[in-house]
Every structure is written in C-alpha cells, then in structure tokens.
Design brief:
The chain has about 130 residues and is of the alpha/beta class. Helices cover about 20% and strands about 35% of the residues. This is PhnB protein.
C-alpha cells in the first residue's frame, strides 16, 4: 500500500496571506490558491477573497489550507522545521516569531544545536530543530 500524508490548516480569513508569507520566508512554493467562487453566507462580510483550497510545498512537504470561519490557532500540533545551521535557525526564529507567541525561546539544548517552539502571527505552531 502506498499512502501520502499532507498537513491541512484552517485559517480565520488569512490563508492566502499566510501561504505567501511562508513562500517568501521559508522558500516554499505555492502550488494552488483557489478562492471561493461565491462567498458562503456564513463567512464574515470583510472576507473579500476567502480561500477554498490552497496548497504549498515547503521542504518537500505539502501543506494544504483554507479559510474557515471561527478557525482557532493550532494547539497540540507543531510543524517542525529542521534548519541546517544555527544561523538559519536564528533567521527562521526571527521571522516566524515576529508578532507571534514564543513558547520556548531559541537556544542550544542537550539534543539540538538550536531548538524553539512558537506560534506565528497566523496561528501556525512551529518547532525549530537544528540537530
């Protein structure tokens, strides 16, 4: 059996902005960005271009997303980025933590040259692990 595993993230109205940010800062490649043809009645009026389905590839992993009313930030799941150098970990930490929430600051640990846990300004939770 062959089986694929992708990640799907719901955003409260800023999927397109988040994916463009990930494309720019993480070197991702947006593969699809499909807005709703007609905005559903239960969506907030200020959502002028909600995303029905989006897809971005980051580091060989596919992340899919959409705009969903009342979507909440990720809680118990983290996307783990594995930068190859401490300097790259520091750069990622700087850009992803800006206007976000830091759970564990970037530092050297017994298991990593650099490790951090944070949630970015879009509600996506990240671990940075430079082994």
């Amino acid at each position: 059996m062959q089986i694929g595993l992708d990640i799907y993230i719901n955003y409260p109205g800023h999927c397109e902005e988040a994916f463009k940010f990930y494309e720019e800062t993480l070197g991702g490649s947006i593969k699809m960005m499909l807005p709703h043809e007609h905005i559903p009645a239960n969506f907030p009026e200020e959502w002028t271009r909600p995303i029905l389905h989006a897809m971005i590839e980051i580091g060989g992993t596919i992340i899919r997303g959409a705009d969903v009313p009342d979507a909440e930030p990720m809680r118990s799941v983290y996307l783990t980025l594995r930068p190859d150098t401490p300097e790259n970990a520091e750069h990622l930490y700087e850009v992803l933590s800006r206007d976000g929430q830091i759970f564990m600051k970037l530092e050297q640990t017994f298991f990593a040259r650099r490790f951090a846990m944070l949630r970015d300004k879009y509600g996506t939770s990240w671990m940075l692990l430079c082994e």
